[in-house]
Structure formats: structure tokens, C-alpha cells
Amino acid sequence: MTTPYTNQHQQLVEIPVINSVLNQLPLTSLTNITSTMMTVADGLPDGEFIYLDLANDAMSPELPHDTRVLVQRQDHVANDSLAAVSFGREIKVGRVTELPNGWILSFDNPLYQPAFISPNSSKINFIGRIIRSIRTYS
């Protein structure tokens, strides 16, 4: 879904931006894409990417509300990675801890309770790992 562009100095890719609450599935349905963002391709690993705008402060102070994160799409993420996970139509970003019977998605903000992810759940899916964040300062 990324579209490459090249200028004199760097290659850019156009990456879709989605909100953390989905209008419909699948994730990259046109109704979920709010815009696109041109991104320097240098340093990006191979793969498919989306930007996600965080709608809460669950990962504050590291990733406060309205932070935009770059997600590398993948079905599974490494232990202790920051990940985006869909719970039905809601996307949560947290730190993944692998357990023998599933995963825990924990949050930096103590006001948010950890979420258990069962390998048998059909409504909970890994979207991918967080590889960059962009913050806007007022």
C-alpha cells in the first residue's frame, strides 16, 4: 500500500494514516484511512506500514495522547516490544509480554489495566510493532 516517490536526495514513501477506532474491517479499508503521510524510506525495514494516531494516554509519558506512531505490519511481535493490537474495532498500543498461554499488553500509564491476549481469540489481532513516533508540540 506504500507508494514510493524519489527526489534528488532521498526516497519517500506514502504511508496511510488511520485512527485508533476503526470504522470497518479490514484495517486498511478506505473508510479507516484519514490521510497519508510522506515518509523518508531510508532506515525503514522491508514490509508494509501504517501510521496510527493515538487516541488516549495509555502509554504516557513515553507516547502521550495524539502521538502518531509508525507501525510495521506483522502478525506477531517480539517479547517486550511496543505493539499495536486490535481488540475488535479498537486499536490499543502497549508493551507486549509473552506468556506460556498468551500475551499481556501493558501500558505505561498506571491508570490503564493490562489486557490479556489469548492465542484462541478471533477478535484480538496483532497489527504490528511500533518503530517510530512523531509528537507535535504546542
Largest sheet: 10 strands, mixed
Distance between the termini: 31 Å
Low-confidence stretches: none
Query: Count of helical segments?
Result: 0
Protein name: Peptidase S24/S26A/S26B/S26C domain-containing protein
InterPro entries: LexA-like, LexA/Signal_pep-like_sf, Peptidase_S24_S26A/B/C
Task: Describe what you observe in this structure.
It is a single chain. With 138 residues, the chain is mostly beta strands. It has one domain: Umud Fragment, subunit A. Helices cover 0% and strands 49% of the residues. Strands 1, 2, 3, 4, 5, 6, 7, 8, 9 and 10 form a ten-stranded mixed beta sheet that branches. Strand 7 and strand 8 form a beta hairpin. The radius of gyration is 15 Å and the shape is globular. The chain starts with a strand and ends with a strand. The model has no long low-confidence stretch (mean pLDDT 86).
Identify the notable features of this structure and list them briefly:
10-stranded mixed beta sheet, Umud Fragment, subunit A, 138 residues
